[in-house]
Design brief:
Two copies of one chain form a homodimer.
Chain A (H helix, E strand, L loop, with lengths): L2 H7 L1 H7 L18 H13 L7 H6 L3 H13 L5
Helix pairs in contact in A: 1-5, 3-5
């Protein structure tokens, strides 16, 4: 995926997952430095409903496969220590 | 949770999630430095089947609430950069 495009797409995500991918909210996971392939599979699972989450369902609903690849590349590229 | 007890319990987890909580396998998430509360909710979801995963279901099936609290404390305590 494209990191820059992923960053541009991540504005909504940052509200919960943090501008640097380290969440401010204990219930929400850090995404910085996470495995790209894992991020892709989870976003697709939220989009399809294979993984059920009332907050993430509407977030993922509007994402294309390309958006998902870009967001995953972006978050995987972030420093895991924030 | 108790970090030391969590570490003792984590031998099986380390096979996929890495001895330092950084996974060697692109499909499996890093756990090092992840949010404790998030780790607890996900392990409980795997145990109850709320979150479906054929690999994690048997892993979580045998865990008590105390095991889950300890494992979450342990992985949350690890350096996110590995």
């Amino acid at each position: 995926g494209d990191v820059e495009k992923g960053k541009a797409k991540s504005a909504t995500c940052a509200a919960c997952h943090g501008a640097n991918g380290i969440s401010m909210i204990p219930d929400y996971p850090n995404l910085a430095g996470q495995k790209e392939k894992y991020l892709i599979s989870q976003l697709k699972a939220f989009r399809s409903g294979d993984r059920k989450n009332p907050v993430m369902a509407p977030m993922a609903a509007g994402l294309s496969d390309e958006d998902i690849a870009n967001l995953a590349a972006y978050y995987a590229s972030l420093n895991p220590a924030g």
